[in-house]
Structures are given as C-alpha cells and as structure tokens.
TrEMBL record:
This is Alpha/beta hydrolase fold-3 domain-containing protein. InterPro entries: AB_hydrolase_3, AB_hydrolase_fold. Residues 40-110 form the Alpha/beta hydrolase fold-3 domain. GO terms for biological process: triglyceride catabolic process. Pfam families: Abhydrolase_3. One of its GO terms (cellular component) is cytosol. PANTHER family: HORMONE-SENSITIVE LIPASE (PTHR23025:SF3), TRIACYLGLYCEROL LIPASE (PTHR23025). It comes from Wuchereria bancrofti. GO terms for molecular function: sterol ester esterase activity; triacylglycerol lipase activity.
Amino acid sequence: MNTLKSSVDDSLNSAETSYKDHLCDELSVQRSAILALLAETYLRVWAELLSCSIVSVEYSLAPENSFPRPTEVLYTHVYIISNAAQLGWSGEKVFMIGDSASGNLVISVISKLV
C-alpha cells in the first residue's frame, strides 16, 4: 500500500505570522532516516529565517514506485495551491525547490500548475 508522508512546520504561526501571509512549498529527497532528520532540522531553520510555514511532501522512491508515482504524490502541492483559501492561505507566494531528481519533479509539478 502506498502512503503519503507530509509535514507542515507551522512553529511560526502566530498573530504576526500566519499561513494567510506566508507559505513556502519545499520538496526534498529523504532517502534515509538520517537525511530525513537533517532535512527536518533545515526546514525549521528555513521557516525561521524566511518567516514562513513550509510544506514538505516526501515522495515515493524507485524501484518500488516507478514513474509516474513520485510525480503523482507531489501533485499534493497542486492541491494545496489550488485550495489555498480553504487551507487559510492567500496562495500568492510559492517557493518550490529540489535538486537532482527532485528538481525534475518540481518542474513536473509547476507544469501541472500552468
């Protein structure tokens, strides 16, 4: 069974900082427990430095999940952006990053949005 792991770092949500004002989408490759823990640490630092909340979706990896499964999982971002108002966010600011394979997936998600 395929599952979707995602998290939202909203530690900065307060009267001054809320989803309505700030949201950054971040895509990251998390291939091991060590990298996943490091990624979470970096995401918290980025959230603090950028004064925003970060949505992180961990996509399904090959070979267990062949193409197009990773791209389909990341369409979660399309849902978030398309339903921004329902999630309490303006939908005006989006920042998506990825390197290597995840960079390619970012382009796939952006092309789905366009």
